[in-house]
Design goal:
Blueprint (H helix, E strand, L loop, with lengths): L1 E5 L2 E5 L17 E5 L4 H4 L10 E4 L5 E6 L3 E6 L3 E6 L5 H19 L3 E4 L1 E5 L2 E7 L5 H9 L4 E4 L2 E7 L2 E4 L5 E5 H6 L8 E5 L2 E7 L9 E12 L5 E5 L2 H9 L4 H7 L3 H13 L1 E8 L5 H13 L2
Parallel strand pairs: 2-3, 3-7, 10-17, 17-19
Antiparallel strand pairs: 1-2, 4-5, 5-6, 6-7, 8-12, 9-10, 9-11, 12-13, 13-17, 14-16, 15-16, 18-19
Helix pairs in contact: 3-8, 5-7
């Protein structure tokens, strides 16, 4: 079994997870990823799937079973176990993508934890959450901020861990993915990056070993990126109950959270995070390059909180 430390979890896995920080822990793992043979009934989930990426069955608070057309069948149980029956098409690359994004997120959901869709960064000991709509420039802003001295905590999926009434961003792993536009804009040599087709989208993976911050960082600033038909960048502070609403809209796999229904334990964690952080929406014009300007706004805001 491989042993790793990701998202604050001690993980045992039957299969390698690329670039995951290796751990030498003793005792029981927080998460066990193991092989499993599923029933013929579960195999039927692939029948007629066609263009569907995945299908869910047995969705409950303790068990979620999913069939994925490229990866296989998976069972997430009790927030600490992932059973896998992999297809031949599930390479180590694809297995890594699935575990670090989709699978671990579902365990967080079962644990009634706050899992945010976005990037987690650190600046002078302060944690930054970058979230927002698709196409608003999350990858480009993260790239710009990393180039200005920010540390890297997590990409795409952020685990919020409350300890002693403080909400922390958990370090995930040093891997970060870039869309092709961002890779080209910042002059990365694509031949030196790992190219991956993830759900029919071309992406490049790079490892941020020098910028990776392998410790809990207090979440202090939550930035929501947006785009609109406006003449110049706008900044809006979000306060009060609106912060709770925005956090809920930024949850990773929101549809799965919704299927679980109202969870008092989860709501209390969201409310705690909302009370702790400063939150701003930064809206960029639909035309023009405003990456540097928005990065200036984020860093200036951090200096004053």
């Amino acid at each position: 079994m491989y042993k790793y430390r990701e998202f604050g979890f001690n993980i045992e896995s039957f299969k390698e997870i690329l670039e995951a920080p290796v751990a030498d822990f003793e005792g029981t793992a927080d998460v066990v990823i193991h092989e499993e043979v599923f029933s013929e009934e579960h195999q039927k989930l692939f029948d007629g799937m066609k263009d569907e990426i995945n299908q869910m069955t047995s969705v409950s608070k303790d068990e979620i079973i999913i069939a994925h057309k490229d990866y296989g069948i998976f069972a997430f149980r009790n927030g600490n176990s992932i059973g896998c029956q992999l297809l031949d098409t599930c390479t180590t690359e694809r297995f890594t993508i699935f575990m670090n994004c989709f699978a671990i997120a579902h365990l967080m959901i079962q644990r009634r934890e706050v899992a945010i869709h976005g990037s987690g960064l650190e600046y002078k000991g302060k944690g930054i959450i970058i979230s927002g709509v698709s196409g608003a420039g999350k990858s480009s802003i993260a790239e710009e901020l990393l180039g200005r001295g920010c540390g890297f905590l997590s990409d795409d999926l952020i685990r919020i861990l409350p300890q002693d009434n403080v909400n922390y961003i958990c370090p995930a792993n040093p891997e970060r993915k870039l869309c092709i536009d961002t890779a080209e804009k910042y002059n990365y040599d694509a031949s030196k990056l790992r190219r991956v087709i993830d759900e029919d989208r071309e992406k490049y993976y790079l490892t941020e070993n020098d910028k990776y911050v392998d410790k809990l960082i207090k979440a202090e600033l939550f930035i929501i990126l947006d785009v609109a038909d406006i003449p110049e960048v706008e900044v809006q502070e979000i306060t009060g109950g609106d912060k709770i609403k925005q956090i809920m809209e930024c949850l990773f796999r929101l549809s799965t959270y919704i299927r679980f229904g109202q969870e008092p334990a989860l709501f209390m964690k969201i409310m705690s995070l909302a009370n702790q952080i400063h939150m701003y929406r930064i809206i960029r014009p639909s035309n023009g390059d405003t990456i540097s300007q928005r990065a200036d706004i984020i860093l200036d805001t951090l200096e004053h909180i």
